[in-house]
TrEMBL record:
Record lineage: Bacteria, Pseudomonadati, Verrucomicrobiota, Verrucomicrobiia, Verrucomicrobiales
Residue ranges crossing the lipid bilayer per the database entry: none
Molecular functions (GO terms): uracil phosphoribosyltransferase activity
Entry-linked InterPro entries: PRTase-like (IPR029057), PRTase_dom (IPR000836), UPRT (IPR005765), UPRTase/APRTase (IPR050054)
Enzyme Commission number, as recorded: 2.4.2.9
Gene: upp
Protein name, as recorded: Uracil phosphoribosyltransferase
Keywords carried by this UniProt record: Allosteric enzyme, Glycosyltransferase, GTP-binding, Nucleotide-binding, Transferase
UniProt record similarity statement: Belongs to the UPRTase family.
This protein's record includes keyword Transferase: yes
PANTHER family: ADENINE PHOSPHORIBOSYLTRANSFERASE (PTHR32315), URACIL PHOSPHORIBOSYLTRANSFERASE, CHLOROPLASTIC (PTHR32315:SF4)
Pathway: Pyrimidine metabolism; UMP biosynthesis via salvage pathway; UMP from uracil: step 1/1
Originating organism: Prosthecobacter fluviatilis
Amino acid sequence: MNVTAVVENFASTGKRGRVSGMQPVVVVQHPLAQCHLAAIRAADTPSHEFRRHLNHLARLLFFEASRELPMREISVQTPLKQTQGAQLARPLVFAPILRAGLGMLDGILPLAPEAVVAHVGIRRNEETALPQAYYANLPASLSAADVFLLDPMLATGGSACEAARQLKEAGAVRITMICVVSCPEGLAAMKLAHPDVAIITAAVDAGLNDRCYIVPGLGDAGDRYFGT
Ligand code: PRP
Ligand code: URA
């Protein structure tokens, strides 16, 4: 079974990786990822189980999203012999969009505990579905880092576009978005505003309903994660 399906690949090169100006969208079809996704979609999954499944799913998505990170060789002394090992070549920054992105951070941060966390507070206006930025705490410079933008839902794309804009304004030049459920509208908005941002997702759903919720989706990710 395919581990991933590259929905929109690098037509010119035919290989995965970051090519300037091109936006790959990778749908992670790993069986474990799809099992966790089914669990968080289910309306009768309680918050404590929703949290557990979202944490696991985020970790699997990050595993895929981090596959191409550059490494540098280091020398390692084992108890027996000098040998070669590897370190990440650049610092990592995780940028969860508040609130629901925090649910992904909880799953991912243990894999890279040395990462810096950049908080981006954006909420959708319930009437207009437009993003409203209400808080930001970003490191002074993001230019040297590999930045992972975290949000379970890519609906209209308004929140993700605004978050990527803020990250770029703070110097980010390498941004990968990890989201759980996306849809064509959100992917199109990101492609238009931020074609250089790669997107790793567990699903591309059919589209939005008249309240701009993803269908079939999973409902309001933040409310379900935090039990509000
Ligand atoms: C949700 C979700 C995204 C956004 C997606 O957050 O977590 O941030 O909506 O919608 P969009 O693509 O149309 O912008 P919400 O605004 O509900 O805030 P919350 O995480 O605090 O619940
Ligand atoms: N925000 C969510 O949490 N879910 C959606 O379907 C759309 C926006």
